[in-house]
Amino acid sequence: MARALNAPRPARVRWGEGLPAEVDGEPVEAMRESWLVEDRWWDAHPLRRRYWELIGVRGRNIVVFHDLDTGRWYVQR
Amino acid sequence: MSPTPYVELHCHSAYSFLDGVSLPEELAGRAVELGHEALALTDHNSVSGSMELAQTAADYGLRAIHGAEIDLAGGRDDRAPGYQPRGRASDRPARPHVTLLVEDERGWRNLCRVLTIAHAHTRGNGSPPTRRELGEPSISAEAIAAHAEGLVCLTGCARRSVLGEQGEGGTSDPARGRTVRTLLEGFGPERLYVELQRPYARDDRARNRAFAAAARRLGLRTVASGDVHAHSASRAELQDAFVALRHRLTLDASEPLRRGNRSHVMTTPRAMASRFADHPEAVAETVVLADRLRFDLTKDLGYRYPGAEEDGASRRLAELCAVRLAERYGPRAPSAARARGSEAERRLREELQVIDKLGLAGFFLLHHEMLELAREVAVEVRGPGSVRALLAPGRGRGSSVSSLVCYLTGLSHIDPVENDLTLGRFLHEDLHGLPDIDLDFPRDIRERLIPRVHDRFGRDRAALVAAFPTYRVRGAVRELGKVLGLPPGEIERIARGADPWGPAAESGEVDFASGRHERDSAERDSDRRSSRWRWLRRLVEEAQGLPRHLSQHSGGMIIATRPLIDCCPVVPAAMEGRQMVHWDKDSCADAGFLKIDLLGLGMLSAVERCVEEVHRQKGERIDLSRIPFDDPETFRAIRAADTVGVFQIESRAQMQSLLRTRPRNLDDVTIQVAIVRPGPIQGGAVNPYIKRLQRLREDPGYQIPYDHPSLEPVLKETLGTIIFQDQVMQVAEAFAGFTPGEADGLRRAMSRKRSGEMLRRHRERFIEGAMRHSDAPLEVAERVWQMVEGFAGFGFPKAHSAAFGLLAYQSTWLRVHHGPEFLCALLNEQPMGFYAPDSLVHEAQNRDIAILGLDVNSSEVLCTVQNGAVRLGLGYVKGVAETEMHELVAERERGGRYRALGELAARSGCRRVTLEQLAWSGACDGLLPKESRSYGAHHRADRRTALWQLGMASPAQGIDQAAEPGREDAKAGAVASRKAGWQLALPFEEHAPPPLRELGRWQRLIADYSTSGVTIGDHAMAVLRPRLVAHRLVTSAQLARLPSGCEIALAGLVIARQRPGTANGTTFLLFEDEFGTVNLIVPRQVFERRRHLARAEPMLLARGRLERHQEGARRLGDGEVIEPDGEPIRPVINLLVSELEALERYVDGALDEHGDAGATVHALPRGPGETAVEEADGAEVGSSMRAVAPPIQSFARGRRR
Known about the structure:
The structure holds 2 protein chains of 2 kinds. By secondary structure, chain A is an all-beta fold. Chain A has strands spanning 9-10, 13-15, 20-23, 26-39, 47-56, 61-67, 73-75. A 7-stranded antiparallel β-sheet of chain A has the order 1-7-6-5-4-3-2, with no helix packed on it. By secondary structure, chain B is α/β, with parallel strands linked by helices. In chain B, helix 41 (1001-1012) packs parallel to helix 45.
């Protein structure tokens, strides 16, 4: 079956001081970037997402976003 | 309150054109709400919004900082002037930007100079050669550095910083490094800053770290900025749409170019400070830097107009006036003028005193000089011996006509003493700023005068005023619909159906369309599509009223003693030889610039053409200033609304009003010109005025009811109503005790766009003043204020009406006494006026003026009068180059008449498509040999025969100029002018064509419309009439005899459509049938139901109630109404429409009654655009007409005069 590459997966995120503190159980070591996507508003499925590019304690690059409409968290890498 | 933590130093308004979605006023208002203390406006390569910001910011208590974001040259897109980059903008390398901020006066001067240089090369050579294409402005870093004094430079926005994407300009990139060094040398480390932005894009933080590091290496400070593009979140989406539009992409395709979020919406200083939590020093620097930027644009810019400070100006003006006074009112003047001599002398003394006190003598001398310049130009344009030389080169309009000084210096042609014109609106002792003088010129003189003024006063000291066309529904629907990726056909349907002027929200255009669309496509992914339709509506509403691009004002000219570019940037205009400042008329007025309006007036050109044609035809030399101004025939025509084509009083509404006001003299015409305007209409003046006028005519003892006795002196001539703009001021003075200066302030508040708050203040002052000054009770004071406020829409000052009224009379006089010449002049001066050429021609035919068709042997390029008949000119043939027609006529003059079609093809140099178009228009009918005209047993086959024969003829071959042999010039359309000569084809022996089907009346009509837009043959309704089957169908000729109130049906061609803002959604259609025109009133409900018919359908059947009013002194036994002197009074006739339908539904059976069944029918040759259908039934009648019908003249605000 066809599957979109890099499709967002639901994630468990613990919120810290102004940024995620833990993603899927992995504590966050540092934040590299944070950006905002508010796009495709003209479409039936608009996007409103706050993204974080984080470094986990294991040195892994993690990209998570918070869906600002549903309040859910997703990891995208 | 704690001091603000952040000042916004980078903000775009809608004057960044497609990269900013808020007006400066909106930005200022929102900034104050959000707690900003200062705001910098930095539009792309422009300061067009600066004065607007400066003025409104002052009102709001915000400190305005001025600047601009400038494109640096040196990228790959910068070549020679006129170079047009290929490919989409998104594919080209982006040019770096810098943000310049003004510290002091020297900085403003330098910014203006930088912008002037940046735009200097933006007009390349376009096509046609007089119209120049717009390129992109840019300037080298060296040039900016050379103008660094008084300016602060920031390194530019995140994506287009001079430092490069990751600060490499501070390190590795040599080209960028050079740029940075150049700027550093120019500005020094004190005035060059590294700009940090945080648009919440993915690479922000890394970039800001790199920029901060680069700043440290270079020894520069960092400063934060927000790159604001919208004042409120409700406009954020429009910004995305504008970005896509700017790059000519859809929203779906423009993702990499958009910001992708709403970080460009203005927010609070605190939120901005927290956005840069990693760079607190850059945030703090915004406040420190802003504190240095103290330039105030509302202070004196040092502008002076020539003569402003001339010592002997007052004496020179007085001498000039004294000489002219002696000529106009002295011993050699006519006795009536002599009688006014002492009054004139007194008035002149008074005016000169005011002028002296205001220091405006130089101002009047400058205008006089301008007119003398126009006189020189006029001699060149008209030729020395021309009969037009009797006419003044131009004439005043507007309030200046009320000034005796203007009359004496030639700026006005109306004697203000004779016409009892008051000066107040134009000149008074507390005048702030400068009075307005508008001058009208014939179009051809104006075209030459404008560059001449540039030359006379110096190209750096004279420029036109800018104008900013704003988004309106149609354009917005088209552009934003495309951006949303909506189907082009649907977009076009909605755009065409939309009211071109009306506000989107009110008329619900897009709503209607989208609702309907949802129904239509319910089955096909309606959800996705309808959300886009909803967005279209929203975006169109948000875009309404935003400036669309920089354009030039119709003729406002600024002249200065010092280089204008020290006050405001000067940029090239679209037309060769013209340049303009960056500010519109309001901003120029705020800056204290003297604007001289040099306007082109189509009617002046037409009148001049007419006078020339009369001279050519009849040898008569007409001096329009000396025609009788009480000509009974002319006034009879005016009273009968027999005024199609004349100046001002020709429109549908004017004609209806003429039948009620029935003017008897020039004063009445002056009021008439002013009465059909939004001011008097909304102020509720029209009906009371007409009612009182009629009462007064019936009963000369009738007492006019005034709201207050103090109003009688000022409103006497308009019978207690406010019709002229100056009456607003006079009422304010007489009733509410305003000083002339205050009254003028009220007038200005009413006529300007940024005025809501000011008008409220005037109201309080007015009511309070009326109660104190005139002892008026509150309710009376409020009633009079309502009358004044109602006028707030547009109205004419009396002086302006007098000037226009005079031209209205003069043009009517020409129409009455020289009908063919006048029509001919109108046809040659199109587009102008209320009626399309086709309607002008039909109306003239109904007055028995003979119109002759196109003919290659008799027509000139322009229309001409030939033996009392008007011959259409070849210039009317559509889709052919005018140069070809000139060549055709020139060849005829050189080598004699064309004797046959083959010869025409061989000699004229016309392309084959041109020849076919000529043949199909009927212009070649005369070339067919007599015997061939009978081939089809009927002369109506002529056009087909001509086409057939042309098919066999060989056009001449042009010999190209040496440069590029074999170049495909044909499609350029300017063939004749580029060819070095002609290789003539040998004329063929012409063969007789086979029997061809004759051209039916309907097909001929369609051929006329498709080739020239004018038919002189049968009217469409005359052709259709025998086949029309509809209940209670009548013609326009029968309406005068039918009883008022009866239900009828009327069929007609729609020639004009109006949906005035003053009529609460009522639409007026002007119907034309073979007998004349009828006014249709379409109520809002009918319009809503039949919107697309009312908007776009050329032929309609209307049902409704006949309304006929006849107001007059006496009614005769047979129902005719006459004046006391026996003159019959024409009734006002309207059809109050209850239903509109497409006419084609009522056409019964096939049309072509001339089909010759006996002959063998050959379908070919077919005319250009002719359908295969030979016999037209109803449906084909509709579709063939829709394709070619003359455009329906559509008016709301503004039309060409």
